[in-house]
Amino acid sequence: MPTISSHSLASEQPAPPIRSAASLRRGRGQVLLSLLAAASLLLAGCSGDARADADADAKPQSGGTLKIAYDVDPTCLDGQQQGTNVTLNVTRQITDSLTDQDPKTQEIKPWLAESWDVSKDAKTFTFHLRDGVTFQDGTDFTSASVKENFEAIQDLGAKASLGQTYLDGLESIKTPDESTVTFKFDKPNAQFLQATSTMSLGFYSSDTLAKSAEERCTGDIVGTGPFKLDSFVHDKAIKLSRFDDYNWPSSIAKHEGPAHLDGIEFSIVPEASVRNGSLLSGQIDVDFSVQSQDEKTLEAQGLGIASRPNPGVVYNLVPKLTCKIAKDKSVRQALVKGIDRDQLQSVISEHQAPATSVLAKSTPEYEDVSDLLAYDPEGAKKLLEDDGWKVGSDGIREKDGTPLSVTLTYWQDAPFLELVQQQLREIGFDLKLEKKTTAEVTAQQAEGKEELTFGNLTRADGDVLRNYFGVSEQNGNARKKADEVDKIFARTTSTLDEDERKADFTEAVKVLIDEGYSIPIVELSGVIGTGKDVHDFNYEASSRFQLYDAWLDGEAQ
User: Fold this and answer.
1) Which of 105, 250, 287, 488 would you call most buried, defined as having the most Cβ atoms within 10 angstroms of its Cβ?
2) What distances in angstroms separate CA 171 from CA 162, 186, 202, 313, one per listed residue?
C-alpha cells in the first residue's frame, strides 16, 4: 500500500498538507500534521485559557472540585449519539480519541494513536496505538476496542448524528495485532483523519457498548478519559471524579499522569442572574453561558472571561424545501437579503460576530463571502413582489391566501433573533418566535413540518458543511433530492490537497447562499465566566472544554 512519507519534528519547515505521524514507539519522533496550515491566523484575538497570560508561571495545584453552571440540561450524555456542546463538554472529559487537533495550529496530533499512515488515495488509514491504555473499568484498550466502537457507531445509524457521517463509505476494519488498526473506505475520505480527533469518535468500554442507546444517554458510560462519570440527574447535576490511573494524555497536554482536579460538578441553572450571583459569590467556578450585557460587570469584579469562536456552521436558518413557504426560492433568497447582519453586532457579545459566510472564520477552509450576504431590503421586497407575495393591510405579505408567516421554535440562547424578527417584518415576512426546551424542539423537528429550523454545527473542518447540509445527512430532509451542492461535497472528500478542498468548500457555500439553503446570521462563540481561582480552563479545537490541565488555587479547595 503506498503511504505518505514521514516528517520529523526537528525540521524547521512546515509539514506538508498530509503526512503520517512519525512513530513515537520506534523513536522516530513526532510529526506535526498540517491539514489546515493557515487556520491558526483565524484564531487571533480569541482566548483559549482562563487567565492564560497572568498565570503563565503559576505552578498547578492538585485537588478541588471545579463547579460549572449550565444554562440547559443535556438530554443525553452519550457523545457518540449527541452533537450538542452541553453533552460533549461533559463527555470529552470521560473519554479520549485516536488523535487530537491543536486548537492554535489546527494540526492533527497523537493521542491514543501514537502514529498513523494514510494512503495517497485517502482510502486506507492505519493507526498504531499506544501501549498501557485502559478503560476506567480496568479493561485494556486495544485495536479490538477501536473496531468495536466504530462498528457500534455504524449500528447506531441516524442516532449517531455526527459519527455516522464521518464513517460514510467505511468498507472494513482490520486488526492485525492488538496495537494496529486499519480502516478501508470504498472511496476517498479526506476528512476522516480530522474526524478521529472528535468526541463523536471517542471510545467506550465493551460493557458500555453492550447497553442500549437509551441506557447510555442516561449516563451509563465508561471511557478511557481522565474523569469518571459518577452520577447524572436530569435538570439537576452531573458529577465526575478523577480517574487516578490515567496516564495517556494527548500529546498537546501540559502535564502527564492524572488530572489536577479531584472532580467536576455540572449544575443546571437556567437563570442568568442566579449564575452571575453564584459566580460572584464563589458558589460556582464557571458560568457556562454569560449574557452579553453581563460581560463587563463580571470583568469589573476581577472575574475572567474565556471565549473561543466555534468553528463550523454559523447560527443560521435552514428552510425545509418540503414545506409550503420554504420551497419558494424567491422567499429563501429574500430572507438572505432581508437581514442586516452588521446591525446585529449591537445586540450580541463583543466576542461574537455577524456571519460573513455559512462557515465561521475560525473554520479551516473559511473564505469571506460577506458580499453575498449584503443587506438589501429593497432587493428582498422586489423578489417577493415579483413572485406574487403582496403586502396586506397589516404589512405582512400573502400569496393565494397564504400569509408569509412562519413560526420558528428554538432552544438556544439567541436574543439576536428578536432583532432579525424586526428586520424581516420590514420586508413583509412575519417570523414568529417560540423558545422551548431542547427536548421539545428536537421532537418537533423530528416531525419535519417546520418551515424553518435554527441552529449551528461545530467542527474544526470544512467537511462540517457536508455533515450539516448533505442530502443524506442530518439536515438532508430540508431538500428533496441530491443536487449541485452534493456533487461539490463529494469532491471535498476525494482529495488531500487543502487548496482544492478550500476552493470546493467556498463554491459549496456560494451555492448554499444562492439557493437559500442556508440563511447565515451570527457566528457562535463560547463565552464563559470563570472565578478568580480557576486556571488553565482550556478549549479544544472544536471549542469544547478540555479540563485535563485545569486546576484551582489551594484557597478555592
Assistant:
1) 287
2) 18, 6, 20, 28
